[in-house]
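Bump. Still looking for MATE family efflux transporter structure tokens.
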Amino acid sequence: MKSTKNFGLWALAWPIFIELFLQALLGMVDTIMVSRISDDAVAVVGLSGQLFNALTTLFMTIAGGAGILVAQKLGSKRGEDARTIAIMGFTSSLAIGLVISLLLYTQSHAIAGLLHVEDDLLPLWNVYVRNVGGGMFLLATIASLSTAIRNTGNTRAPMYTGIAMNVLHIFLNYVLIFGELGFPKWGLAGVTVSDNVCRFLAALVLLYVFVHSFERKIVLFDLKIFNPKLFREILKIGWPMGVNMAGWLFSQLAIFAFIAMLGAKELAARTYMNTMESFCFMLGYAVALAIQIRVAHLFGAARTREAYSEAFRALYIGLALVTSNALLLYAIGNSFLRVFTTDPDILAIGHSLLVLNLILQPAKMLNMGMNNSLSAVGDTRFTMVVAIVSMSLVATGCSYWFGLQAGWGLIGIYCCMIADEILRGVVVLFRWRGKKYLLRAKTETRPPSADSEAAALPG
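Sorry for the wait, here they are.
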């Protein structure tokens, strides 16, 4: 069984941060390399990335719910249940990923029509979506395995895997896009080959770690395991998380479609800003992911008072980190933008977005930190309802009205995104302070000592 020392906030957070940093660095290098192909290629990668993110919610519904339960079961000393849940999370996510891969590979042109992709972008779109989308089952494998491994307290293995794969990905991108070192010059198609090769190797490494992550080694025969009772527990937590995530990502996809209607320059500017913002928020996001694992483990162990206070401790740390990073990005952001493009219109738009980012990032941290804490204790339906209402009316509806109809453009859309994050963040903050789920002491996963612990909660 994993030692509880693996579930300390910083022990969990720093490997996650390193992994996220490398992913963001890879994203920046990818964007720079793709920008050398054309701004149209950047626009295709940006828009298709939103599509891929939206579709990942279909398997992250299972993987996310399973991950939280793995941490809870380990906290309550039910290692066999944790093992069974992790296996079901992996096999179910893989099955869903295979269906998504088939859909994207065969229907890329039809999907382009739904997203109003410009005709000039269609050749690049079909190459990228068919090839990268066809490998989505590999992403499903990586996501489910990484989530399960992290929730055992082992956040280092995904980090080390990420380091190796990112180095390889940058190398393959370089030689396959530009035809260096005797490799063929494939342009955007080279990026798709690089993506799938690296995902395949990462999946193999994580699978090896996964089978050794529990007291009893996972063998091939175990992949047939299916426990209906435990699977219902996964769905109980996971489906609202999946709807929440899907709502956010489809909202972002709609917003990207609105931006695409504004023009290719606005779409390219938003794509460049996405890359830079990922650096700005990664420390806070690492803390948010770590606190979800920690709160779930503490909740499973009936240490409810500590779970309550740890959520606020993580929030304060995260707010300090993302605010500092937003200020730093504002100071150096214009120079970074010139790494991607020299187009004066795109640079002007980017400068305005850097100012708004000073408000957006702390708002995202508040929302993410409190949402993850509530999810860790199983209070996922409330966050789902709040998210769907706010994202539908404020993020998406207002973005369309102010961004397109009122003529505020990309600035108006950004203001609506900020309003959505603030609204949701404040609502879930008050929900956590109400301690509804923490005060539910008598559950199947928690020992009788939970009653005295819950009664001692502050507030």
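The chain has 15 helices and no strands.

Edit: fixed formatting.
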